[in-house]
């Protein structure tokens, strides 16, 4: 598990720490609180899919489910006194809803969740490492 997601982890202290914590998004997508967000079988084709594979789709349901998952993760971060997890949850929530909301295909957590759904159709692809690699190629 990424060190920033461990119980008792401190919040990021500087910009470099923020970058390190943000790199934990692919692992966060594997937390059980976000499992209901994974939609397998919606995308076919080679691994990894690009953002064009998701063009023209409605992601409001995914956004709503992700918000529920992030709320549960905020509770977990408080229980576990995980400053890294709390920071990541706050940041992802800020860009998920409201005036700062990013399009689904640009929001890191939603991209990771979409890729997890697509990965389920490809043996060995549904791992945090493969999701991170696919996100790096996402563009």
How would you explain this protein's 3D organization?
49% of the residues lie in helices and 0% in strands. The relative contact order is 0.22. The protein has one domain (3-38, 57-138). It has helices at residues 15-22, 25-28, 60-80, 83-94, 108-119, 128-138. It is mainly alpha-helical and 139 residues long. The radius of gyration is 14 Å and the shape is globular. The protein has 6 helices and no strands.
Q: Which secondary structure elements does this structure contain, and how are they paired or packed?
A:
Blueprint: H1 15-22, H2 25-28, H3 60-80, H4 83-94, H5 108-119, H6 128-138
Helix pairs in contact: 3-4, 5-6
In brief:
The chain has 139 residues and is an all-alpha fold. The protein has helices at 15-22, 25-28, 60-80, 83-94, 108-119, 128-138.
Offer a few descriptive terms:
globular, mainly alpha, 6 helices
Poorly predicted segments: none
Distance between the termini: 25 Å
> What best-fitting shape do the alpha-carbon axes yield?
globular
Largest sheet: none
What kind of assembly state do the chains in view correspond to? single chain
Derived structural class: mainly alpha
**What is the H-and-E element order?**
HHHHHH
Number of helices: 6
Number of discrete domains: 1
Strand coverage percent: under 5%
Overall radius of gyration: 14 Å
Helix content: 40-55%
How confident overall, as mean pLDDT? Answer: 94
